[in-house]
Design brief:
With about 475 residues, the protein is an alpha/beta fold. The chain folds into three domains: about 160 residues, Aconitase, domain 3 (2-Layer Sandwich); about 90 residues, Aconitase, Domain 2, CATH 3.40.1060; about 180 residues, 2-Layer Sandwich (Aconitase, domain 3). The protein is built from 15 helices and 18 strands. Helix 6 packs parallel to helix 8, helix 12 packs across helix 14 and helix 12 packs parallel to helix 15. It is globular, with a radius of gyration of 22 Å. The model has no long low-confidence stretch (mean pLDDT about 95). It binds 3-isopropylmalic acid (IPM) and iron/sulfur cluster. The site of iron/sulfur cluster (SF4) has 13 residues, from loops.
């Protein structure tokens, strides 16, 4: 009898090109996404060494981090140059490097352009069972479709471009099993924030996590992408959800997905990609879905999570001395006082976007709350940034753009936007933003910016009330 294996072990075993005695292995990489921030030096390295891209057909490049989310073409149809010199240089480098190395490139003015982690699944570039990398920590997102996907550094980007392989050590395996069903009004974002709040920002360190349970089986691909995306915020190397009929239905007919007989063969293989009964995980965590409420972060780490019904925690209540010190610092940065009910915290900015929550379902969830309502007077800016041009177009076809605009939101072009301060979309110092992104680090949305991570519906609730608010009281 063959040994029972986890999903992670199956994908790993299928990609080992060479196994060394010291535990390192050479792994074949099926898919490589490239963006403008982590690729310029990698291409430069190839150029200096006189090397080519080994498998341009398995590589896909798109700019997302630095592109402004305002109009990209002027009235005459000419490209509006990027003002920031560093951003412009990175974008221009990618625009030169992709054609020079024969890498398929989706330009900033292409309708398919968007955040790498949104366009990969959308184009059918991301497939179950494949190994996938990108010079970007949120590559974990693609695990939502059952791909073993993780972020790599720029020198590894160069290595993958040159060889289509990567030297790696096998990670440990971890199961996060969620039992029961989520209560009404609770979204995948609330669940992943809750999970990170429970296991901590280092809870998954050294592990590849597999999310298991009925909740995930019943979840849409959009929701699964939100979950897997934030695996890295729990410290995990990657996050996986076993592919199933929902995955296959999502991928069928996507431009880069297999077609005809290849599709049938692929689906037959993908159906084998499940953790076998009796397979053993190195670590196992069980979460009760009934415990999850709409979640909000209060501090400067994604593990600083409380339910919206809660209060800002007292730093002195933490057992660990370093956690007490970190919480004091966080509250100082965030301008918050222990004991304040979350629902009394006023916000000035709203950001709906990022690779965590910028897909069509996210926009629908926010628009559902905003419909017939207007942003509260205290809201100084509210941005909605679709994850790709295709998401944007679909939202417009559904009339969602009207709902956002009528509520007082700005309807923008796709990109990373205010998820991180690398482009013009920033939150002013000392001001507070309810954000659907994934990181609330110090300065993440701009120097001195204060970030509260929430779901799209909760961001909309914050917009119309001008404070952190329980969306369940609005619908
Ligand atoms: C700029 C990029 C390398 C970075 C990452 O690796 O994740 C960014 O996407 C982020 O979310 O912080
Ligand atoms: S949207 Fe944010 S988290 Fe995602 S890739 Fe861009 S900067 Fe990173």
């Amino acid at each position: 009898m063959t040994q029972a294996r986890t999903l992670y072990e199956k994908i790993w075993d299928a990609h080992v090109v060479d196994q060394r005695d010291d535990g390192t292995a050479i792994i074949f990489i099926d898919r490589h996404l490239v963006h403008e921030v982590t690729s310029p030096q990698a291409f430069e390295g190839l150029r200096m060494a006189g090397r080519k891209v080994r498998r341009p057909d398995l590589t896909l490049a798109v700019p997302d981090h630095n592109v402004p989310t305002t109009a990209r073409l002027d009235a005459d149809g000419n490209r509006i140059p990027i003002a920031d010199p560093e951003s412009r240089a990175q974008l221009e480098a990618l625009e030169r490097n992709a054609p020079a190395f024969g890498v398929p490139y989706i330009s900033a003015t292409d309708i398919r352009q968007g955040i790498v982690h949104v366009i990969g699944p959308e184009q059918g570039f991301t497939l179950p069972g494949c190994t996938m990398v990108c010079g970007d920590s949120h590559t974990a997102a693609h695990g939502a479709l059952g791909a073993l996907a993780f972020g790599i550094g720029t020198s590894e980007v160069e290595h993958v471009l040159a060889t289509q392989t990567l030297q790696l050590k096998r990670s440990k395996s971890m199961e996060i099993r969620v039992e029961g069903d989520l209560p009404a009004g609770v979204s995948p974002k609330d669940l992943i924030l809750h999970i990170i709040g429970q296991i901590g920002a280092a809870g998954g360190t050294g592990h590849v996590v597999e999310y298991r349970g009925r909740v995930f089986e019943q979840m849409s691909i959009e929701g699964r992408l939100t979950i897997a995306n934030m695996s890295i915020e729990a410290g995990a190397r990657a996050g996986l959800i076993a592919p199933d009929d929902t995955t296959f239905a999502y991928l069928k007919g996507r431009p880069m997905a297999p077609k005809g007989a290849d599709w049938d063969a692929a689906v037959a293989y993908w159906r084998t990609l499940r953790t076998d009964d009796g397979a053993v995980f190195d670590k196992s965590v069980v979460i009760d879905a009934a415990d999850v409420a709409p979640s909000v972060t209060w501090g400067t780490s994604p593990e600083d999570v409380v339910p919206i019904t809660g209060v800002i925690p007292d730093p002195e209540s933490f057992e660990d001395a370093s956690k007490r010190a970190a919480a004091r610092k966080s509250l100082d940065y965030m301008g918050l006082t222990a004991g304040t009910p979350l629902a009394e915290v006023l916000v000035e900015h709203i950001f709906i976007g990022s690779c965590t929550n910028s897909r069509i379902e996210d926009l629908r969830a926010a628009a559902d709350v905003l419909k017939g309502r207007r942003n509260a007077p205290g809201i100084k800016s509210a941005l909605v940034v679709p994850g790709s041009g295709l998401v944007k177009r679909q939202a417009e076809e559904e009339g969602l753009d009207r709902i956002f605009i009528e509520a007082g939101f700005e309807w923008r072009e796709p990109g990373c936007s205010a998820c991180l301060g690398m482009n013009p979309d920033k939150v002013p110092s000392g001001e507070r933003c309810a954000s659907t992104s994934n990181r609330n680090f110090v300065g993440r949305q701009g120097p001195g910016a204060r970030t509260h991570l929430v779901s799209p519906a909760m961001a909309a609730a914050a917009a119309v009330t001008g404070r952190l608010a329980d969306v369940r009281e609005l619908v």
